[in-house]
Structure formats: C-alpha cells, structure tokens
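User: Hey, my collaborator sent me this sequence without any context and asked if I could get a structure. I don't really work with proteins. Can you help?
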Amino acid sequence: MSMSIWRAGAAALALVGLVNGGQALAAGPCSPSPAHEAFDVQGLKSQLMVTALSCGVQDKYNNFVGKFRPKLAAEEHVLNGYFSTTYGRNAQRQHDDYITQLANVQSERGLQAGTAFCQQHVSMFDEVQELESTADLSNYAQAKDIIQPASYLTCTAPNHPAAAPARTRAPARRTVRS
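Assistant: No problem. I've predicted the 3D structure and written it out in structure-token form, which is a compact way to encode the shape of the chain:
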C-alpha cells in the first residue's frame, strides 16, 4: 500500500471519528475538546450571522459583534490554536473548511424550517443583548441547540493490561531458498 493511500485512509477514519463522535465514546474515554467553549461560541456566532442574513436583521448582528468583540476574538484565537495543533500545516485550510461547513449546515437547517426560521431565531438577538458578561455568552452558547458539522472530542486510548514480560532470547531466523 502506498504512503498516500495510507494517509488518505487514515484521514478518512479520522473524519469518520469526528463526525460520529458519539460512537467514539464506546472506544475509550472521551471528553470535549479543550477548545469546546470556542466551538460553542463560534457556532452561536455563525447561527446569528445566518439568521441576520436570512431574516434581514444585520444591524442586530452588528450590535452583537460590537458588544462581544473581545470574547469573539479570544475564542477565534483558541480555535486557531486548536486547528494549528491538530492539523499542523493544514490548519488554515481545515479551519476554513470548518467555518464553511458550519455555515452550510446552519443555512440548510434554516431552509428546511422555511418561514418559521426567522420566527424561531430572531429572538436570539434579544436574548444575547441581555447577557451581561463574556461568561454569560459562553454559558448561553453551550445551552443552545446550535448545530455543528462535526463533534470535536479528545479521546484517549483505552487502558490495556500490563504487557507480557519480554523474551530474553530472540527467535531464530529462518531463510527459505528456492
């Protein structure tokens, strides 16, 4: 198997693991990514942007961004760190893909809801304007049912029993000649 095929297979498995994060829980102990709060806040920001564009309330979105600009910038910095650590040289591409997929899945949900979408989501702007602190924003983002394109979990390998003692003598080599 060539190295590029192996890498493609490994990448596909990693993607399946991200998308099916719930199934990964059975494989070993998993917890939300250290960047979980940043993903929640980014999801909320994206949901509000999609709502603003779909429902013609861009001024409400601009007020939200103005009020929470430092928090939004800090969480963006955390996401940059997450993608840099996780994807190395491909960090920017992966981050851009995440932002695009996030907006796409949220827009698709809005299209499925039809005219009810604006009735259901514009009130979020009034709710976030009532928040008093950046901690309130984080808690709000975590409590809302914000759709994400993938689950970002950090999983550790399951504990294995102690390995058998190493052999003291190497096995004999056999050479077959034709």
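In plain terms: Residues 37-155 form one domain. You can pass these tokens on to your collaborator as they are.
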